[in-house]
Amino acid sequence: MAHRTVGHRPGLPDDPHTSVTAPTPACPVEITLAALHGRWTTLVIRELLRGDRSYSELRAALPALSDKVLSDRLAHLAEADVVHRDRRAGWPPRVRYALTDQGRRLGPVLQALWDWGADATVQEPGLRQPPP
Amino acid sequence: MAHRTVGHRPGLPDDPHTSVTAPTPACPVEITLAALHGRWTTLVIRELLRGDRSYSELRAALPALSDKVLSDRLAHLAEADVVHRDRRAGWPPRVRYALTDQGRRLGPVLQALWDWGADATVQEPGLRQPPP
DNA sequence: CTGAATCCCTGCCGATACTG
DNA sequence: CAGTATCGGCAGGGATTCAG
Predict the structure, then answer these.
(1) Is A38:A74 a contact under the CB 8 Å cutoff?
(2) Quick one: which residue's CA is nearest to C13's C1'?
(3) Is CB count within 10 Å lower at the N or C end of chain A?
């Protein structure tokens, strides 16, 4: 009973999406948040937005990220069809990670997230938060 | 960094944000994700995007959401300066919740999340897209 | 080099019960 | 009406170790 109307404005504020009354995985917003879900995930994506990377290049770019979480993230992102895994035969094993078309389309999404957060830090400091 | 897509706004793909190598709360993306963090949060915001609401109206709109989580979410969103709590004296107690200016600016963000998720459900069921 | 397996600890969220 | 208090289950994620 989902409405897959892509032709016209799938608007959020005014429209039919208001029928969603629970956090169902079928909601497009939930789908995107699920793709971005988990710590480090956005940083991995951001790194891949700059170009494809090997496993160790990702580790080098994100030094505090453990192997377990990195491989978890990559598996998760591959399952969400955000990253593509390119494995090559031979020795030593070479694997390249690159964003899919869909993954690249996350650029504007992350941009929107960045913009709001940047704006928030500009407006907010007057109220509370006297950081040491 | 092959091509610059548009403009030179505080862009994510191409530029200086790449210095962030860990999930620090100072990163604008993290700030926004923190504001949206938690189950039900986006649905509460979406409800408030339609207009201000009382506590019980929110409960009615989201029947499966428990009191604890709802008040948690509202407290969290108030702290993030996304919602404003308007409490009126008298009996019975009347409290109205409304989005702040910042909260209203989350509209486009949620829209971006929706768009990507809706697009993903369209592309995904078959195969991946052929490379450009 | 590229991961997968294990352990443990923390924090989330749901249900229930109670208060101003 | 509008919340808070408390408890328990479970999943997330960090460190370490092992494997192809």
Answers:
(1) no
(2) B69
(3) C
